[in-house]
Amino acid sequence: MKTLIQLENVSKTIKGKKIIDSLNFTIREGEVFGFLGPNGAGKTTTIRMIVGLMKMSEGDILISGHSIRDEFKEAIHHIGAIVENPEMYKFLSGYDNLKQYARMQKNVSRERIDEVVKLVGLDDRIHDKVKTYSLGMRQRLGIAQSLLHSPKVLILDEPTNGLDPAGIKEIRQYIRDLAEKEGMAVIVSSHLLSEMEMMCDRIGILQKGKMIDVQSVKGWLAEGVDMYSIEVDDLEAATMYLKSLFPDVAPENSKGRLIFEMDKEQIPILIRLFAGKGISIYEVKKVSKSLEERFLDITEKREVV
Ligand SMILES: Nc1ncnc2c1ncn2[C@@H]1O[C@H](COP(=O)(O)OP(=O)(O)O)[C@@H](O)[C@H]1O
Ligand SMILES: [Mg+2]
């Protein structure tokens, strides 16, 4: 899979304040990547730098291998984006809006206009006036407009903001289709975890301008990341021994139990080791955590640091 977006140590400082702090990540073709974070986390600022609306203070961004700093035109050519609400002529049809927009770009054929209309599922309504469109349909027209020049990368800042549940579902489906069928790399942002987990392949959690965690949604939901709870006779000894065996594991003590994250395969090994060390085990059980709980774990832990 080809890397289409690459951020290298991207930072932004405004009036002496670091708003974005050393972002490093890559996004491949066919992948939907989500920026998740509360208001003020830096989602829009990061997106504005990726689409070239704002200069970065440090680092570089490569789009399909082209540097935004050194090869701006080549890099930007590969991007389609909606950052602020797209401007539409409400008294023209969706189709005439696209034609109008296509005129401002190089080499957009009539066939391409029809193609993007199909892609966003507006075939039925494209000749109706935009003022009769629902917010979701306007959003889709905006996406169609940003796709006219056949970009490889699509970037949407809070695309589901203000939409009703049906509209959200539609947008989600079109975004997944663009990644899966067209092989585009897509960045979306949101402050809602529930929405991101349905739309994204990976989620990067932004907090105070830092990317504090990147998780694959599949991995996140997979069994491999289940938590285990063990009841033992000597909690202190068990905690120390566990930490010495698995330095990466951060066990928590709760109600006389040891709670930690571990691969399923390692549990029988751990039980044998504990037994060999003379630690008595009364109970071992798997405690599943929802994505929501894990997300809170991650954000709360970092808040303290
Ligand atoms: N032009 C600017 N000048 C000063 N501060 C800014 C500017 N743009 C954004 N910020 C600050 O940067 C932080 C991140 O903002 P933003 O990227 O809009 O967050 P988000 O989109 O995640 O809500 C906020 O604290 C915001 O006040
Ligand atoms: Mg924003």
What does this structure look like?
With 305 residues, the chain is an alpha/beta fold. It has 2 domains: 3-221, P-loop containing nucleotide triphosphate hydrolases (Rossmann fold, 3-Layer(aba) Sandwich); 227-287, Alpha-Beta Plaits (2-Layer Sandwich). Helices cover 37% and strands 28% of the residues. It has 11 helices and 14 strands. A hairpin with a 2-residue loop joins strand 12 (252-254) and strand 13 (257-261). The radius of gyration is 24 Å and the shape is elongated. The protein starts with a strand and ends with a helix. The model has no long low-confidence stretch (mean pLDDT 88). Keywords: ATP-binding, Nucleotide-binding, Transport. This is Bacitracin ABC transporter ATP-binding protein. It comes from Domibacillus epiphyticus.
Helices and strands, with pairings:
Blueprint: E1 3-14, E2 17-28, E3 32-36, H1 43-50, E4 58-63, E5 66-67, H2 72-77, E6 79-82, H3 94-103, H4 110-119, H5 135-147, E7 153-156, H6 165-182, E8 185-190, H7 193-199, E9 202-207, E10 210-216, H8 217-221, E11 227-232, H9 235-245, E12 252-254, E13 257-261, H10 266-276, E14 281-287, H11 291-304
Bound molecules: adenosine-5'-diphosphate and magnesium ion (MG).
